[in-house]
Design brief:
Blueprint (H helix, E strand, L loop, with lengths): L3 E6 L11 H11 L5 E6 L11 E4 L4 H14 L1 H7 L4 E4 L1 H5 L3 E4 L2 E4 L6 E18 L8 E13 L7 E5 L11 E2 L1 E3 L2 E4 L5 H4 L1 H11 L13 H10 L3
Parallel strand pairs: 1-2, 1-3, 3-4, 4-12
Antiparallel strand pairs: 5-6, 7-8, 7-9, 9-10, 11-12
Helix pairs in contact: 1-6
């Protein structure tokens, strides 16, 4: 691979919570391994290019969600990307958008239907720090992040949870409270901000491995003591 291409989808709409940082972390962790990497910002009104190596979506308010959904459904590029098995990482509103439906502005909105997940409205806002144990993907490091949402996301049989909650709120306030995020095919979703990749470098490396056609086990390790120190502090270790 000559250059790793990272698609940052609608940063002008889904950029409320600093999730743009996920693309920055991917680019930096690639470059630290000697892999040239570039971020391609895909703004509102622009088609989603289908030739990039990995795609990131962030969070946003109800109105931003609706605008982003309308654009992405009309464009169709992200569906082609998912159908081709290209890795996609989505956070919070991005998570809900990729599902079958979500509620925004008091109404039910049909999502992109790329993952088997339906989002209704929580009784009270989920907000605060979370930790979760990863499920699958070769991941071993405990997840850490900050959530802030009113969505109750229930996973259908085609989707699997990204992690099992250790502390803090999960996807819903009911039967799936103990689960965080979702995976399906080449798509990984989460409610964790932080940004998620800055706080969970192993998760970033999983996406990087998938984007470069290798495995997490074969990806060259990085030794960044300050990152591990911050993780230990956040996990209370």
């Amino acid at each position: 691979m000559s250059t790793l291409t990272i698609g940052l989808v609608l940063p002008d709409v889904l950029g409320t919570y600093g999730d743009d940082g996920n693309a920055l972390v991917l680019r930096q962790r690639a470059r630290m391994r000697g892999i040239d990497a570039e971020i391609h910002k895909i703004r509102l009104g622009e088609p989603v290019p289908t030739q990039l190596d990995v795609y990131c979506l962030g969070g946003g308010e109800d109105t931003a969600q609706i605008i982003a959904t309308e654009h992405l459904k009309g464009d169709g590029g992200l569906r082609k990307v998912a159908d081709a098995g290209v890795p996609i990482f989505a956070v919070c509103a991005g998570f809900q958008i990729l599902g079958t439906s979500f509620r925004a502005g008091g109404t039910e909105v049909t999502g992109l239907e790329l993952i088997d997940a339906t989002t209704t409205t929580l009784k009270t806002r989920s907000i605060g720090e979370v930790t979760a144990a990863p499920i699958g993907g070769g991941l071993t490091d405990t997840f850490t992040g900050f959530v802030n949402h009113m969505g109750a996301t229930t996973l259908g049989p085609d989707a699997q949870a990204l992690g099992t909650i250790i502390t803090g709120p999960g996807n819903t306030d009911q039967d799936q409270r103990s689960y965080e995020g979702a995976t399906q095919g080449s798509i990984i979703c989460t409610y964790m901000h932080g940004s998620a990749f800055a706080r969970n470098p192993q998760l970033a490396d999983l996406l990087l491995a998938q984007a470069t056609g290798t495995t997490l086990a074969k990806l060259a390790p990085l030794d960044i003591p300050v990152v591990e120190k911050l993780r230990r502090e956040r996990l209370g270790r």
